[in-house]
Amino acid sequence: MQTGQADIAIIGAGPAGAHLASRLAAEGRDVVLFDPKGAWEKPCGGGVPTRAIREFAFLLENSNYPRKLVRRITMISPLERRVTLTLDEPFAVYSRQVLNGLVLDRAIEAGARFVRDGVSDFTRERDGWLISTNQGERWRANFLVGADGAASFARRRLIGIFPKQDLALAFGYNIECADESPASNGNGSQRGGPSMDEVVVRFPRDFTGYLWAFPRPGVMNFGVASKLGERTSDELRTLLTDFVRGYYNGHMPEAERVTFFGAKIPTLDFASWKELRASGDSWALVGDAAGFADPITGEGIYYAFKSADLLADALRDKGMRGDAPYASSNGSRNGYNEAAASYEGRWREEFGRDLEHASYRLPHFYHGRFFGRIFTDAMIMLARHHRGVRTILGRALVGEQSYATLKRDLLRRAWQVF
Ligand SMILES: Cc1cc2nc3c(=O)[nH]c(=O)nc-3n(C[C@H](O)[C@H](O)[C@H](O)COP(=O)(O)OP(=O)(O)OC[C@H]3O[C@@H](n4cnc5c(N)ncnc54)[C@H](O)[C@@H]3O)c2cc1C
After folding, report:
1. Are residues 175 and 315 in the same domain?
2. Is 182:191 a contact under the CB 8 Å cutoff?
3. 74 within domain boundaries
4. Is 166 close to ligand 1, i.e. is its CB under 6 Å away?
5. Residues 121 and 41 in one domain
6. Confidence of residue 322 (pLDDT cuts 50, 70, 90)
7. Distance 284 CA to ligand 1 centre (A)
8. Number of domains in the chain
């Protein structure tokens, strides 16, 4: 049985884990990254918001990793009202296999060791951790990071699973198609689609969530997400299938072009943010494992990268390195604990408060009223008539409008309309 040693062990090589590994390895840290799947087609829309592209420039630097850049977003209200927004800067849509491959390749190039194996167990040992894998390897590390997604094993062992009210359930289809395929359309653009250069978001009535259609290179990604327990799986699948049929003359495309997927997304309840912890004694959680996704949109890729960045910054600034790969001096442990505490403050400051605010706004966003109308319908109606409202909506869609000021900003613009 092989026993390896590393300074920092990361469980999960999705955007959060692989980006963290590449940052740490580039700074000369000794990192091991575990994932049984490597780069894979994780159930996801693959929409990477403008803000993420801007902050993480490496995403668009290498054209070997194809993605679709999208500037047009059509939003459809519960009352069938629609508006199309044209964004000043595009956002990107990736196949998740491609996106994960991009980040994992960078981590390996930077010097991180990648172990294609799942972590089956970990225990505390002296000042660090003893980690076991599915295939029977054992590793020792000073600091442990859980980056293993919404169903995180690390989270379960360290602080417990997400309660039901902190999760959304999502289903989707990836449907292969020629990039400019002609087909009939009942959902998106009026021209006849599916349009391969336009995102469509539809808000069903009395529904805490939405349906989407995202064009990727050679694939249309359709999905639906809603608060876990609000609708049954069958109800969600029916909604989704009807939405997809609207694009294809009322029929589902041939089975060989269609892949179905389902997964959970952390969408934390307002009350959960106060108690949320993402780190402790020589450990930290990043990305979905920490609960970092937008509760209103389910968007988590930006927060996966951002939380990884913040933890890397904290480890750089506070985490002391021992001389040996598996250093066990008290100094090292204190340094890691300072880093963990510093990370806790950083994520809350950088995005935690805004996500908490989003949770507070969520019931109003999906079920509230604005000028006597369903909120999303009023938003879309105002956007049709007022450029200022379109700007705010566009900024919200690409992740640049703070939730704390969304209602105030919309109200200001709405008064101008009236
Ligand atoms: C249907 C759906 C649609 C979505 N659409 C979007 C979208 O369009 N835009 C957006 O921003 N976000 C979207 N999200 C959210 C987004 O997918 C996540 O927020 C993002 O992938 C989080 O990245 P992560 O690295 O934290 O976790 P993940 O991407 O889930 O990666 C976790 C990794 O850990 C590995 N792992 C799990 N267990 C172990 C183990 N025991 N040992 C080792 N490795 C392990 C897994 O194999 C996986 O590779 C969507 C989510 C869903 C479910």
Report:
1. no
2. no
3. no
4. no
5. yes
6. very low
7. 17
8. 3
Q: What is the band of 413 on the pLDDT scale with cuts at 50, 70, 90?
A: confident
pTM value is 0.94
Exposure string of 299-329, with b = 16+ CB inside 10 Å and e = fewer, is: bbbbbbbbbbbbbbebbeebbbbbeebbbee
CA dihedral 367, 368, 372, 376 (to 10 degrees): -70
Query: What is the model's pLDDT at position 418?
Result: 59
Nearest Cα residue to atom 5 of ligand 1: 45
We report the CATH number of the domain holding residue 145 as: 3.50.50.60
H or E element: which one contains 101? helix 96-110
Whether residue 305 is found in the same domain as residue 400: no
**Same domain assignment for residues 183 and 207:** yes
What CATH number is associated with residue 171?
3.30.9.10
393 and 379 in contact (C-beta within 8 Å)?
Answer: yes
Alpha carbon distance 186, 192 (integer Å): 8
Q: Is 293 in the pocket of ligand 1 (CB under 6 A)?
A: yes
What does the alpha-carbon distance between residue 314 and residue 15 come to, in Å, rounded to a whole number?
Answer: 18
Query: Which stretch of 16-20, 335-339, 361-365, 389-393 has the lowest confidence by average pLDDT?
Result: 389-393
43 CA → ligand 1 middle, Å: 8
Does 251 reside within a domain? Answer: yes
Q: 91 in a domain, yes or no?
A: no
Residues 373 and 301 in one domain: no
Confidence of residue 196 (pLDDT cuts 50, 70, 90): confident
Closest CA to 11 of 188, 214, 158, 196: 158
Strands (E), 102-146: 113-115, 119-125, 128-133, 138-146
In a domain? residue 64: no
pLDDT value of position 183: 44
12 lines ligand 1 (CB under 6 A): yes
Domain with 102, as residue range(s), is 3-46+96-162+270-360
The two structure tokens encoding residue 254: 């041939």
Quick one: pLDDT at residue 219?
94
CA of 272 to the centre of ligand 1 (A): 20
pLDDT at 328 over 90: no
